[in-house]
Here is the input.
Amino acid sequence: MRGRASSVERIGSATLSGYTISWGKRSVDGSGKCTIAVSSTEAMVHGVLYRLPADEKADLDLVEGLGTGYDEAMVSVQTPTGPRVATTYVAAPTHVDDGLQPYSWYRDLVVAGAVEAGLPDAYVRRLAMAGAQQDPDSTREAKNRAAIPCGGISI
Here is the structure.
């Protein structure tokens, strides 16, 4: 996150009840990227809550694809200090394809972020078990694998 918004402040862990994470956001490279979707009341997404300076919001919106694949949504998350309202990016309905799979490097990057954030082990294992495909662009694959913290993951 710091690579996308240099002054971001990590607040801590957060959970979003009644939603599930999916890999069905259609990316410009043809693979699936993460999004959240309303689900059963038992479902829960684990994540990290950040405080973003207002003057960096437009840059993050651009990088994340706000208006070109992602929409913005206000959600109520639970934190160790109580509920908070948060803004998140959600795949626009026109950009959702539940048949998509992420590239393996993207799935591994998401998993490495979940490990680094200290998300629950069972949740991290579920992320790691998501089906993935090989990126046909070996240069992109190598570049993105090099960006995974600690050289990758071990579950």
